[in-house]
Each structure stands twice: as C-alpha cells, then as structure tokens.
Write the structure tokens for this entry.
Amino acid sequence: MFDVFPIWFRIFFMSMIPYLEARYVIPFAIVYLGWDWWQAFPLAVAGNMLPVPFILLFFRYVEKFLRKFNFWIKILDWLFKRTRVKADSRIRKYEYVGLLLFVAIPLPFTGAWTGSLVAYLFDLNFSKSLITIFIGVLIAALIMVILTITLGNIFNFQFNS
C-alpha cells in the first residue's frame, strides 16, 4: 500500500511518526532505499519537525478533550508520568539545554514528539522550545548519519542503490 507513494514522500511521512522520526528514517533511507544522506536529511528533518508546532500549540486542547473519556485519562496519566520521570531533573535544572540534550540524543522515546510533550508539560516558551527542538532534531539526525556511514564503511557494507 505504501509503495504507491514516491520514495521522497515515504521518507517525509515516516519521519512524522513518533518513535521513528528522522533519527531512524535517515539510516533506513540510506541503507534500504539507496539514498544519499544529503537527499534524505532535509526531507526527514522537515517531516520530523512538521508536527512539532502543532503539538506545542494545540496539545492542551487535545488533552482537555481526551480527558473526558476514562480510557484516555489512564493513558495520558501514564504517558505524562513516564515523560516527567524521564525528563524532570534535566529539564528543571537546565531547561532549554536539557530539552536540547533530551531531543538530540538518538535513543528511543527521546525525539521531537517527546521533546514537544516535555516542553508542554513543563510550560516552556513556544518559540524557544521550537528552536531548541529543531536544533536537537538536526543534531540527532546528524549523529545517525555519521553512525550509519561510519559503520557502513567499517564493515564494508554495500548500500542499496
């Protein structure tokens, strides 16, 4: 089903998906789709950043609506508790530097989506959060490009082309 879309759209769209984001889509594009890093990088970063301003601006309304339903109350409470535990000490102490590090380290559950949620939960400034998350996404994507290319060269991996 996904094959009907052009590759550039798949890269862009997959980068919007929480957990995948640019940090995992760029290596996928390099290794499996045969794209050069400089082709995949801007598409993946743009796709990764597209949802961020909407999350920062409108998540409070989504939360308010979802909290009308018992099913979502439990999920939101679990998600918020988990996010606060993971980010609390770093964000309270370092604020935007902590947010930057939280987004920039390419580990599961630390990307732009979670960073946006952290900025929302800690009531951080919209503009500063948006810029900080963008820089973090760039750093995480760059780390993954370097790792992918370096490991590919070390192990003499032949990328699809």
Notes: The chain has a mean pLDDT of 92.
